[in-house]
Amino acid sequence: MRVFVTGGTGLIGSAVVAELLGNGHTVLALARSDASARAAEAAGAEPLRGGLADLDVLRTGAARADGVIHLAFSNDFSSAEAVAAAVAEESAALATLGEALVGTDRPFVTCSGTPYAPGRASTEADPLPTDGPVGGRSLAVMGVLGLASRGVRSAAVRLPRTVHNEGNGGFAGLLTGIARQTGVSGYPGDGAQRWPAVHALDAATLFRLALELAPAGTSWHAVADEGDAVRDIAEVIGRRLGLPVEAVPAQTYGPLGPIFATDQPSSSAHTRTALGWEPKHPSLLEDLENIQP
């Protein structure tokens, strides 16, 4: 398959591009800068210059491909306004890509986060939350899945709170960055809340499987670690950086504070059984040992 990939040079996207190329597919990668274009070419993909806001470019990419994988999203979580702008940009991009694929029966794989299920690990059958700072992303993903009735083999890979590689990425990566800035490896609340996690290379395998095999309108969980206690994550970060480990106010994390403070384990039992996905790479706590002081 020739696959159009957005976000193909990020931590997750670069792993997805390598996974696709290593399994006989070719890749057309959206590249919003010269540096991204060079990185895409170096990885073996063909770059297509443009960003998520360039809707005509997205239409072109979808038209030139046998399938689409969407991964791009702004990493600016500095304010509620920045998050809202990122959600709006992505929502328009997903709607544009979806319309370009209507009636083609081509695969369209997008991403979201794993949902929150009070008192238990969430499953693939649980609905995505439509409230909170990133609730708009859920509405956009639901719109993509709804394209199943319009001749699109749409699917969603739900990513856990931390997608990691070499100690970097996800919520754990944000904790590491804040620890470096503040001199404290902090965690909100009592730190007993759990975050699910997956290695980027394992997530990449699931994106490929969803592209190749997922029935239309289905959701899948890229979860390797069902839930690591945030205090345990902070303790590894603190030890690696030589910093004290302490509870800090949820407000420390800005608009993500309420999410950081929530217990949100997640299961991937159905995904593993139905698609034959089996994570093989290091767990989050193991991978955090790669953090450099």
Automatic annotation (TrEMBL):
Recorded hits in Gene3D superfamilies, A to Z, give: NAD(P)-binding Rossmann-like Domain
Highest taxon listed in the record's lineage:
Bacteria
Name the InterPro entries for this protein.
Epimerase_deHydtase, NAD(P)-bd_dom_sf, NAD(P)-dependent_oxidoreduct
Segments of this protein annotated with the region Disordered: 264-293
Which residue range or ranges hold the NAD-dependent epimerase/dehydratase domain? Answer: 3-213
What protein name applies here? SDR family oxidoreductase
Q: Which organism is it from?
A: Dactylosporangium salmoneum
Q: What is the lineage of its organism?
A: Bacteria, Bacillati, Actinomycetota, Actinomycetes, Micromonosporales
